[in-house]
Amino acid sequence: AFSSNDILNFNGGSFTGNAVELVSSVLNIGTGSTGAGTFNLSGGAYGGDLAAAQTVNLHSNSAASSLTTATADFTNHGTIHLISDFDGRDVTLFRSGTVTNAASGLLVFAGSSVAGTTDRHLNAELVNAGMVDVIAQSTATKIGATGDNHLNSGTIISRDAASIVTVLGSSFTNQAGGVLAGLGELDFSQPTLTNNGIIAPGLSAGLLTLDGAVVFGTTAELQIELGGLDQGTGYDFLNALDGLTLNGDLSVTFIDGFQNLIDSGDSFTILSAAGLSGIFSGLADGATLATGDGYGYFQVNYTGNTVVLSNFSAIPEPATGLILLGVAGLCLFRRPQRIR
To answer: Tens digit of pLDDT for each residue in 131-144?
Structure first.
């Protein structure tokens, strides 16, 4: 173990077994270093790009919160955990600059602490092409600081219905192909959220709340799954607490075999906003939308500040269609009987 102002310069190689423990120390990953291993860092400083098979765990302890300072901008190709298992003990990775999460990178906000005052905070400008996975339970996760401009072309997913992920900064752009997904609340009330990518409420079916004004671009897509009649549990629901401007595509698919249970009289309010403007591309009020899995069609209505799916019409399965066609053919070509 290294502690109190020790310095570890890691220039490559691999190790297995227990992680290297560093307390209030400095971890420097050498330029171009490869290999595998895990480092537990509580406080102190960090520098260097992380390779794909390397893991850094940043964690607080029962006695104090933890602040780790990144000494320069860096790219994560491996795994970084921000972990707090003690109520009221924050864990922070600070960089007055940019942290890039590469396509292979995994950035995880984790831990079992549930106190509302416990923060897991990436205090840096984030450029994400990989996975940001928020599995922290019922507590605050923060990304960025005032003035930061964040870019996402990867996936950011929140897994706990009681969690709040707060983004701080001037702007956040979800680029084409980027994904914002999951449960709980994504708070963009400080930066401007421009969504040119995918927003996918739920883990299967679920409720996702967006705080802050949101603008959908032409390449945006809202993905909705229908697995039952209950909003937010049986089917996906997007709840926008502020203004929402629509554009781009609406994708609707079935899960859990619900296409076999749905009735034409069922309706689904899939989106609500404090103020709703615009429409999905090619979907005027009352237009027909084909489901992405080919099971049928819905009518789409913009009712007040909501989007509602209704009047489902199923497409017959190919086997059923062939049977009907065969019956029709027999009727058509049957030789008429002579009337006696």
So the answer is: 999 997 767 899 99
Phi-psi region of 331 (alpha: psi -120 to 50; beta: other; left: phi over 0): alpha
Distance from C-alpha of 172 to C-alpha of 118, rounded to nearest angstrom = 24
Q: Which two tokens stand for residue 82?
A: 């921000």
**CA-angle at 67, arms to 64 and 70, nearest 5°:** 160
Q: Which pairs with CB-CB distance under 8 Å and at least 24 residues apart come from 199-202?
A: 199/174, 199/223, 199/238, 200/236, 201/236, 201/237, 201/238, 202/232, 202/236, 202/237
| Total Cβ atoms within 10 A of residue 18 | 9
pTM of the entire predicted model: 0.91
Tokens (6 digits) for 225: 């799954």
- Written in H, E and C, the secondary structure of 109-140 is EECCCCCCCCEEEEEEEEEECCEEEECCCCCE
User: Nearest-5° angle of CA 286, CA 289, CA 290?
Assistant: 155
16: exposed, middle or buried (Cβ count in 10 Å: 0-12, 13-18, 19+):
exposed
Work out whether strand 237-246 and strand 268-278 pair parallel, antiparallel, or are unpaired.
Answer: parallel
Torsion (CA) 253, 259, 262, 263 in degrees, nearest 10: 110
Token couple for 146:
């005032």
pLDDT tens-place string over residues 155-195 = 999 999 988 999 999 999 999 999 999 999 999 999 989 99
